[in-house]
Amino acid sequence: MMEFGKRALNKAQTRLDILAAVYRLSNEANFRDITVKNIAREIGITEMTFFNYLAKKEDILIYMTGIWALDLLVLQHKYPLRGEAAIRRIFRHTAERVQQHSRLMVNYIAYLATNEIDNAAYDVEAADRYLLYPDLPELFTEKIPSGNELLLKHLVEIDPARDPMPTLLHLASCFYGDILIAHTAGLDIQKLYDDSLDLIFGAAGQSAGPGPG
């Protein structure tokens, strides 16, 4: 079993503390208005110490997404699903995060729209995984897939013979777009997601044509 030194665990805990602080602060302010000084004060470290863990404030958003993907990896490990059921769980899991941290999720989408991010940046270090899920050592070093990789995998499970890319584009559109609509219009993100998925999978089923007689 992988073992972790005190330094690695302390760094992992501080990263998790920083994320928790941003979650709390984002309930009252937009991410762009939250300073590193605010975050550092919230968890009792200095600004200089903050930069020992993250190169810039925006890296917190990348770390947040890595944790989101790790949680999905754990869910799939504990309660395996395939195809449409697995995709709907991804959206349910995301809706829960949006409901908890709506403003922060919108800020993340805005950041994505203006920055190119390597998928490798979303990885979560083994020590962080251990602190979150100490009972799952088999996942400490497993590659964490991106959101697109997860969706593609499950789309292929639905129909290996069909090109998954058109449906993936529709899924990505509602994944991000519905968050913005829910936030600006005060709508229920889970209801929006459910309606969008019903339309996407309904349309996909119709485009496949009738099955064998």
Which key features would you list for this structure?
213 residues, mainly alpha, Tetracycline Repressor, domain 2, 0% strand, globular, disordered C terminus
Could you give the topology of this structure?
Layout: H1 6-26, H2 36-43, H3 47-50, H4 59-78, H5 83-100, H6 102-114, H7 126-132, H8 147-158, H9 165-185, H10 189-207
Helix pairs in contact: 1-2, 5-6, 5-8, 5-10, 6-9, 8-9, 9-10
What is shown here, in short?
The chain contains 10 helices and no strands. The protein has a single domain (6-207), classed as Tetracycline Repressor, domain 2, CATH 1.10.357.10. It is globular and about 55 Å long.
Description of the molecule:
The structure is a single chain. This protein is mainly α. Helix content is 67%, strand content 0%. Mean pLDDT is 91; it is low at 208-213.
Q: What is the N-to-C order of secondary-structure elements (H for helix, E for strand)?
A: HHHHHHHHHH
Query: What percentage of the residues does DSSP assign to strands (E)?
Result: under 5%
CATH superfamily: Tetracycline Repressor, domain 2
pLDDT averaged over residues: 91
- The helical percent reads 55-70%
Largest β sheet strand count, sense and barrel closure: none
Query: How many distinct folded domains?
Result: 1
Number of continuous helical runs: 10
CATH architect. name: Orthogonal Bundle
Shape: globular
Point out poorly predicted stretches. Answer: 208-213
Q: Structural class, from helix and strand content?
A: mainly alpha
N-end to C-end Cα span: 53 Å
